[in-house]
Amino acid sequence: EAGVAQSPRYKIIEKRQSVAFWCNPISGHATLYWYQQILGQGPKLLIQFQNNGVVDDSQLPKDRFSAERLKGVDSTLKIQPAKLEDSAVYLCASSLYRGLNTEAFFGQGTRLTVV
Amino acid sequence: QQQVKQSPQSLIVQKGGIPIINCAYENTAFDYFPWYQQFPGKGPALLIAIRPDVSEKKEGRFTISFNKSAKQFSLHIMDSQPGDSATYFCAASTILNYGGSQGNLIFGKGTKLSVKP
């Protein structure tokens, strides 16, 4: 079974530039998550999708972050404009569905450095 | 109330030792408590998880102990090996219907474990 695929693996941008990350979840997984992991900390949820609908984006900084999941499969997370404090690893995760089978499978992440 | 507090921040043990990592939570709505293992450059991977209706769960060398009244849970690694050197995260979530937050994992800050040969 293929895992969660993310690209790019690394990205370096200057502050105020924009950046986009891509995620392809495990086939058949209805729920998709984006997490932000700052160095030395645990992952923090940014947004959760159920199929192609947003079910929780309460912790997404909506003035600069946006995410979409077209057709309920792939997802993109965008930051515009980036700030220095956005430097982190952005992890995508997917699970079969919400609730009873909550095991989330994580991708390797995209390491973003904002300079 | 959404926090999960994890300790210690780092831990060094000798091969064969039994490292113990502790976590505490406040939100009594949490009903799913997984532990994730993360190697450098990799995403977290589920190690073992427990529901609050049991006090202990063992899978191989990994054991979760759960104390519902104290709102604490811990991970024990028996006969630890150098290959267990990684960062371990506890987490908590709700799997019963709890509105938009259902399934969202709240992570602790992590424990960096080093197992010396």
Tell me what you see in this structure.
The complex is a heterodimer of chains A (115) and B (117). By secondary structure, chain A is mainly β. Chain A is built from no helices and 11 strands. Chain A has strands spanning 5-7, 10-13, 19-24, 31-37, 44-50, 53-56, 65-68, 75-79, 88-95, 105-106, 110-114. In chain A, strands 2, 4, 5, 6, 9, 10 and 11 form a 7-stranded mixed beta sheet that branches. In chain A, strands 1-3-8-7 form a 4-stranded antiparallel beta sheet, with no helix packed on it. Chain B is mainly beta. Helices cover 0% and strands 50% of the residues of chain B. In chain B, the strands form 2 sheets. In chain B, strands 2, 4, 5, 9, 10 and 11 form a 6-stranded mixed beta sheet that branches. In chain B, strands 1-3-8-7-6 form a 5-stranded antiparallel beta sheet, with no helix packed on it. In chain B, strand 6 and strand 7 form a beta hairpin. Chain B starts with a strand and ends with a strand. Chains A and B meet through strand 4, strand 5, strand 9 and strand 10 of A and strand 5 and strand 10 of B.
List keywords for this structure.
heterodimer; A: 115 residues; four-stranded antiparallel sheet; globular; B: mainly beta
Give the ordered list of helices and strands of chain B: EEEEEEEEEEE
The gross shape of chain A turns out to be: globular
Share in helix of chain A:
under 10%
Largest interface: A-B, 28 and 29 residues
Mean pLDDT of chain A: 93
Alpha-beta classification of chain A: mainly beta
Give the number of DSSP strands of chain A.
Answer: 11
How far from one another are the termini of chain B? 40 Å
